[in-house]
C-alpha cells in the first residue's frame, strides 16, 4: 500500500515537473526587456494556435510559421503593445481560428451558451421527472377503506 | 400516444448528432477561409525577384484579375504544382504573380531558369513579411485578386488541373466578367 502510494506520488510529481518545464522553456531564446513582458508574451503565445500544426499553440509548434508568429508576438509585447492589439494583429491575418478561446459574438453564441442551455434542459427534465414520481408515489398511498380491509384480511390470513 | 413520442426524443437527438459527426469526418480542417477575403491586398513594397531595382507594390496588382502564388524552392508541393502553373500561364487567362517566400534569390532564379517560369512577375519576399501579412501558413498558397486589388479567394495547397477546373477557373471567369463591366480589361 505504502509502496504504491510512493509510486503514485512520485509519478504525480514527475508529471507536474514536466508540465512546468514545458511552460517555462520556449523553444528559442529571445531577450525580453523585462520579466513582466516575458510572462505576458509567453501567456499570449500559449493562447494562440499555430495555423499550420493545428493542435499546437505557438510555443509548442516548431513550424516556420509558428516561429515567425512567436517572434512577432514577443516583439509586439516588448514594444509595449497591448494584448488586444497582438490578438487583433493575429486574427486580421489568420482569422478567428488562431484563438483557442473564441470571442463572444453572434456566431459563437451557440458555442458559449449551448452547454448552459443543455444543462438547463437537463435540470428541467430532471425536475419534472422527480416531481412526477413524487405525485405518483402520493397517489399510491391513497387506498380506500374497503381496500385497506381487504388487505388486512389477506395479511392476517397469511400470518396464521 | 404523446408519451410515446416523447420517448423518441433521445433517438432523434442521437441521429442529429450522428449526422453532424458523420459530416465532420469529411471536413478538412486544413482548409481555412482566409481572413483577408474581401479585403485589399496588404500594402507592400518589395523588390522584383529578377531585378533588384524594380519595386513592386500592392498598387502594381490592380487593373486586372490576377493570381498571386506563394512559392519557394524549399517547398516540395510547389514542384508538384509547377507544371500546372506553366500550363495555365501558357493559356494566358490571367497574370500569375509569384511571391517568392522566404527563399534565396539566386536559388529561386536558377530554379525558374531550369524548370521554366510561369510568372508574369515575381515578388521577392525574403523575410516573409508579405507572407505574414497575407496570413500564409505554408507554401504553396494562391490568392485570387480582383481588378481592384481585393483578395477574393485563397487556396491553400498545390493547384492542379482539378482544382483549377472546378474551383479557380469558374471564379476567375466570374471576376473577369465583373471587371469587364467595370471597364477594366
Automatic annotation (TrEMBL), chain A:
Keywords: Heme, Iron, Lyase, Membrane, Metal-binding, Signal, Transmembrane, Transmembrane helix. Residues 14-155 form the CcmH/CycL/Ccl2/NrfF N-terminal domain. Coiled coil: none annotated. GO terms for cellular component: plasma membrane. Residues 1-24 form the signal peptide. The keyword Transcription does not apply. GO terms for molecular function: lyase activity; metal ion binding. The chain crosses the membrane at residues 109-130. GO terms for biological process: cytochrome complex assembly. Belongs to the CcmH/CycL/Ccl2/NrfF family. NCBIfam families: cyt_nit_nrfF (TIGR03147). Possible subunit of a heme lyase. This is Formate-dependent nitrite reductase complex subunit.
From TrEMBL, chain B:
It comes from Shewanella hanedai. The keyword Disulfide bond applies. Its main location: membrane. Residues 35-177 form the Thioredoxin domain. The keyword Cell cycle does not apply. Transmembrane segments: none annotated. This is DsbE family thiol:disulfide interchange protein. Belongs to the thioredoxin family. DsbE subfamily. Signal peptide: none annotated. InterPro entries: Periplasmic_diS_OxRdtase_DsbE, Redoxin, Thioredoxin-like_sf, Thioredoxin_CS, Thioredoxin_domain, Thioredoxin_ResA/DsbE_sf. PANTHER family: THIOL:DISULFIDE INTERCHANGE PROTEIN DSBE. It is a single-pass membrane protein. Keywords: Cytochrome c-type biogenesis, Disulfide bond, Redox-active center. GO terms for cellular component: outer membrane-bounded periplasmic space; plasma membrane. One of its GO terms (molecular function) is disulfide oxidoreductase activity. The lineage of its organism: Bacteria, Pseudomonadati, Pseudomonadota, Gammaproteobacteria, Alteromonadales. One of its GO terms (biological process) is cytochrome complex assembly. It is found in: Cell inner membrane. It holds the Pfam family Redoxin.
Amino acid at each position: 500500500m505504502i509502496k504504491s502510494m510512493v509510486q503514485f506520488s512520485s509519478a504525480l510529481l514527475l508529471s507536474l515537473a514536466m508540465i512546468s518545464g514545458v511552460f517555462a522553456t520556449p523553444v528559442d531564446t529571445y531577450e525580453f526587456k523585462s520579466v513582466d513582458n516575458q510572462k505576458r508574451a509567453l501567456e499570449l503565445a500559449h493562447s494562440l494556435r499555430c495555423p499550420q500544426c493545428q493542435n499546437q499553440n505557438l510555443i509548442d509548434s516548431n513550424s516556420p510559421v509558428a516561429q515567425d508568429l512567436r517572434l512577432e508576438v514577443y516583439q509586439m509585447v516588448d514594444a509595449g503593445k497591448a494584448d488586444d492589439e497582438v490578438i487583433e494583429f493575429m486574427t486580421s491575418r489568420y482569422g478567428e481560428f488562431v484563438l483557442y478561446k473564441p470571442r463572444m459574438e453572434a456566431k459563437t453564441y451557440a458555442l458559449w451558451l449551448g452547454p448552459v442551455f443543455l444543462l438547463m434542459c437537463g435540470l428541467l427534465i430532471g425536475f419534472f421527472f422527480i416531481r412526477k414520481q413524487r405525485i405518483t408515489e402520493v397517489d399510491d398511498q391513497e387506498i380506500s377503506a374497503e381496500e385497506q380491509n381487504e388487505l388486512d384480511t389477506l395479511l392476517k390470513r397469511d400470518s396464521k | 400516444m404523446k408519451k410515446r413520442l416523447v420517448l423518441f426524443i433521445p433517438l432523434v437527438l442521437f441521429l442529429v448528432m450522428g449526422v453532424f459527426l458523420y459530416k465532420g469526418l469529411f471536413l478538412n480542417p486544413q482548409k481555412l477561409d482566409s481572413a483577408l477575403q474581401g479585403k485589399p491586398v496588404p500594402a507592400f513594397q518589395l523588390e522584383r525577384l529578377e531585378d533588384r531595382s524594380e519595386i513592386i507594390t500592392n498598387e502594381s496588382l490592380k487593373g486586372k484579375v490576377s493570381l498571386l502564388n506563394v512559392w519557394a524552392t524549399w517547398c516540395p508541393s510547389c514542384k508538384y504544382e509547377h507544371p500546372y502553373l506553366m500550363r495555365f500561364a501558357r493559356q494566358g487567362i490571367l497574370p500569375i504573380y509569384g511571391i517568392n517566400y522566404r527563399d534565396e534569390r539566386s536559388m529561386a532564379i536558377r530554379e525558374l531558369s531550369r524548370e521554366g517560369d510561369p510568372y508574369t512577375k515575381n515578388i521577392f519576399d525574403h523575410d516573409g513579411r508579405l507572407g505574414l501579412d497575407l496570413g500564409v501558413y505554408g507554401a504553396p498558397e494562391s490568392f485570387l485578386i480582383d481588378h481592384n486589388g481585393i483578395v477574393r479567394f485563397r487556396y491553400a495547397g498545390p493547384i492542379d488541373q482539378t482544382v483549377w477546373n472546378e474551383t479557380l477557373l469558374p471564379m476567375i471567369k466570374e471576376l473577369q466578367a465583373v471587371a469587364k463591366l467595370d471597364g477594366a480589361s
